[in-house]
């Protein structure tokens, strides 16, 4: 069995694996896609001490750093079940069952989809999830942001500076973003905010040419012509596969204490899949290190053989 088995190969998982391996204990990483969300990220300018880098470049450095150590990396493997027995068992989609004294869950999160026609079809053909990555592709064009929470309004403010015009579509009767962000948004000349808007379709031919929505107050169907749709309706933690095996909050985030411990002895969690206050690379890496040191401490203190 492993001493530490990390599930997830993003910033949190890579950090956890390196910290564990440096203790000279048997360490494994199972990752559906080594690198995680940063593979989809363009510029990164808040990874402290590195003024500027790009996601794929940082992902390559993570992998290189992990491979410096004796870590068993199982890439392109998805975990589907966790069970705590004497050891912790992780069953993979391919049927294999891995056993470990401790497990660190670092499965991250993904952007929530609207689930309307056109969204999947036009992904990367006008449908985008990351204003930092794809904003410049829509320079001088008209775009929509779906979602009026903090991420949606931040995206709209960001895009207003690059594009010709931004339409914000919010399902509810009010924006949910902090008032300071709303004030900033309403001060911009090229933004229209539509509330009570239920997005029904993203239209296009070979790429996006518009968005349709129903005005929930009047029931009227509307269509706006534009070239891009940024979906900003939240991050979903990749934790469904855990079921009730580990305690999660209403948002599905794994509940951890300040040592990264979950409610299951020997099972720890770190990064965007946990109930951490902020979801960032540097924060995930710190949490991965914390969880790993806690796992080591657990091994030292327990009698598991
Ligand atoms: P992730 O990066 O999500 O990694 C999760 C890992 O778990 C992946 O390897 C995944 O394949 C794997 N996994 C998931 N489910 C399973 C399973 N069942 N079995 C096995 N493996 C599984 N943060 C910043 O600090 N600065 C930025 O500029 C920045 N820009 C961003 C831009 C974009 C477009 C996005 C999407 C995010 C950005 N972030 C940024 C946030 C940052 O990427 C995340 O906070 C960080 O990647 C979280 O790391 P993580 O290791 O917790 O999770």
TrEMBL record:
<keyword id="KW-0285">Flavoprotein</keyword>
<feature type="coiled-coil region">
    <location>
        <begin position="59"/>
        <end position="93"/>
    </location>
</feature>
<protein>
    <submittedName>
        <fullName>Alkyl hydroperoxide reductase subunit F</fullName>
    </submittedName>
</protein>
<keyword id="KW-0274">FAD</keyword>
<feature type="domain" description="FAD/NAD(P)-binding">
    <location>
        <begin position="2"/>
        <end position="286"/>
    </location>
</feature>
<comment type="similarity">
    <text>Belongs to the class-II pyridine nucleotide-disulfide oxidoreductase family.</text>
</comment>
<keyword id="KW-0520">NAD</keyword>
<keyword id="KW-0175">Coiled coil</keyword>
<keyword id="KW-1015">Disulfide bond</keyword>
<comment type="subunit">
    <text>Homodimer.</text>
</comment>
<keyword id="KW-0560">Oxidoreductase</keyword>
<keyword id="KW-0676">Redox-active center</keyword>
